[in-house]
Amino acid sequence: MITPSSGFAGLVLAVALALSGVSGSLPTRDRSLRLPNETYPLGYHLHISSNIHLGNLLFSGNATIDVAIRQSTNEIVLHAKNLSDYQITVRQLTPSGSVDVVDDLTHTYNPQAAFLIIHPRENYQAFEAGQRYRVEILYTAIMRSRPMGLYWMDYVDESTNRTVYVAATQSEPTYARLIFPCYDEPGFKSNFSIRLTHGINHSAISNMPVKDVQHHGELTTTLFAATPPMSTYLVAFVISDFEHISETYRGVTQRIYSSPRSKEKGQSALKNAVRTVAAMEDYFGVSYPLQKLDHIALKKNYGAAMENWGLITFKEGNLLHQDTGDVHKRVKDKITQNHEIAHQWFGNLVSPEWWSYAWMNEGFATYFAYVITDLLYPEDKVMDMFVSDEGDRAYSYNSFFDVRPMTSYVETEKEIMAIFDIITYKRAACVIKMFHHAFKQKIFVRGISRFLEKYKYTVANELNLFDYLQAELLEDEHFGQQPWVLRVREIMLSWTHSEWMPIVLVTRNYENDTITFSQRSIHSKSEHWWIPLNFATAQKPCFEETQADLFIPPQTQHSLSLAELNLQLTGRDWLIVNKQQTGFYHVHYDTDNLRAISRQLRHNHTLIHPVNRAALFRDLKPQIEHTELEDIDVVLDMLKYMEFEEDLLPWNQVADTIDFVRRNLFATSSLELFNEFVRQLVTPTFRRLFRDKTSGEVPNSDLDAGQAILLMACLADLPECLDHTRTLAKEYIFKRINVTNESEYFAMYDSILCLGVRYLSDKDFYGVIGMMQAADRSSIYYDDLIYSLRCTQSHSHLLYFLELLLGENSTHLILSDPESMMYLSYLYKSNMEARSVIWQYIDRNYKLLCRSPNFVENFNQIAEFVPRQQKPHFVLLRQNIAAYMEVQGLNHTGAALIDIDSGLVGKKMKNTEVFVDKYEQKIHNWLLAEVPQMSAQKEAIYAASLSVGNGSNRPQGLLNTASEVVQKALRSIDRSLYR
């Protein structure tokens, strides 16, 4: 039983009331989904009994909670969900020894709030302020198959061919209530004493070290030491037959648990964990408070990993590794492990008052996982990965997710789940990074350290954090004199309570030597921020000092002279704002300043930091996408230097820009000129990475950008790239030489297969078809072939493939009827060369296609890509389809054909049309002037990359029928249609 808190005599008044599942009624009242604050937990004693070793999914529990009463109330409210057979006993704990029996109690369950409410049968204040009670609840429940609450999994022991069952927990964010009745909110911290009864051949681990083990027959009860005060979402335990490896350093024992056959695969994770915990302690000056930290590899887990205090759970593939394999994945998995270790401080030691502040957990863990990994493994260049993996997603979050502030109030379980999104993880990490630099790194870390010390074992909100940062800034000799230093709350709140991110327009007045900083967001005119700026110039090209030179206030414009900014600039000098892109905002420049930067890039690009070289293109991309730039030639001028760019970070950003321009120039007279321009830029880097690479392990930094280089080169029809990927793809397809984890190509696996089949000879193409038909349809190999064939650029091969998929004689040997129509839509969206072929195929075969149950749905999706010049053709086709379906009575799915006048028709092409109208002629003129005579036209490249077969190797039977249809169709194809 739980020992009563200090200051009490500890007399437990037994007898109160046994509630054996009887449910009473409670007067109706309006309820929040939040727990009331009249009571709070002092400590839990949790006993779970399970026969999971036998495959029995039923478990029983005894949750005993010492409860303090803050304010007199007629109820004790707990969370509980999917638990049953309650037997509830309430005892009063008194310091004096007097006996006040609480009687006549019952309980009610509120399913909407998942509340278990203990209350008197009559409405009166049964629980008095200042008193303490012990609530004991017996119950039963069933383990779940999904990783929520207490769940089960199994694996086959290869040595005995025996199925072994395992039980594990996932309590975050609101799943502890599925395991035991509790105060399941992060603000209700308490101590937990846990004991687990399980099969004698299984063992149990939990948050804390084992205190005692008791054997009784075929069962064992494992008792664990009491935890420090912690939130319910961190309660964790696992019952398994797993084995472990371990190492102790600085008094902390760390263990890697896995199934017995995988034990040695945990060596690298163990070494990393030991180094990382020590590095975290040194960096923040706050010791890891527990005696042990376990890491366990599970077949099923909620996400990649979960940071339970003292017991981190992982998906197997994110923790266990061979010494060889995909380098990039191994680095990513180190970051994942370090993210969970960082949570031992951010979230576990100090927890959020409420889920509105989830970013204080996830943002700090995300960012400092990279910081610590970079300190330990500088050769991996993980801060470059932060820019590309976290930063890129954060900068584009508003394109993919519901927009909200970092600090957002949530209440329902669904809302709480939804807050664990790109904003909480990636945007918050970028904002934290910004102030880590703006406030000087040492000052920021000291403030965080004091915050952790002050609030350890308790909960905090964002204002508590901001106040400690301000206190540290005030003590600094430089920042303590700044006018903004007393407004840190206001500064930080402008970021945590804004929905969007700012764009800073830097406009230089070259006549009166002033600079105007304008701020806005793409979507909101009302939001403004306190924005930290720092500067690098041609006169002072220092990018290493990243603290704030200036905070611009939250107003639309702010103008300052060069003297006020302490900057020296001549008319032709360049100015770059946001050194190393430490600030979380876009920067746009006036055209003259962009041209000055472009001159520097072409003259000596290394004078500008590689992160800023990348940032230039990241910041230009939304301007290009929204056709905001008046002078598109300045972007092309800036791209010219990339031929000499050896750092791969800028290539990641340039790849996006090039792909966007290429896709928008498709079917224009500028496309081939642009592809030649790209070939000139990318050839040196492609050769360095793929042709001239030395033997040995490829650096993680190279792999990170390798896929972008490969895509750029092959999509621009660089012959060397086409040969390279075709060779690898054919080895996999025809020789089953796998591109597996043992190869550095694994990270580019899908791209290699797609690019490798872009230009196949007839012999090879029909060979792939034959291999696909012979393959097991449930195999990964089969999926690889069918999805790589979508990439072919040959019209004859596309028609052949469409006939095989959808034709009258197809009998759906490759995909089912609904799958084939979905594939048609997918093919249309992913392969621009296929669009004209698909439209004409639909035009000739709609009487067959519209019999598919999901034809209308997929036709409507494709209709969104109709260009304006082909609208008349589309209108006629749509009318013909509608008339035929009406006559044949085929409107059976309930879905309606898209209306001819619908705004959705051609919607996805409108941005392209605006881009072409504004920029295509300017781009064409620039390319004609700047790009030398092309060494080859597309047709020549296509021919050179092929060894065209005579068709004698085509599969017979059904495929011969498809071949005849293709030959007829090719005679009438208009290659310009629907492009």
From TrEMBL:
Membrane topology: Lipid-anchor; GPI-anchor
Signal peptide: 1-24
Domain Peptidase M1 membrane alanine aminopeptidase: 269-495
GO cellular component: cytoplasm; extracellular space; plasma membrane; side of membrane
Domain ERAP1-like C-terminal positions: 574-851
Top-level taxonomic group: Eukaryota
Annotated binding of Zn(2+), by residue: H339, H343, E362
Entry's Gene Ontology molecular function annotations: aminopeptidase activity; metallopeptidase activity; zinc ion binding
EC number assigned by the record: 3.4.11.-
Note describing how the cofactor binds: Binds 1 zinc ion per subunit.
Official protein name in the record: Aminopeptidase
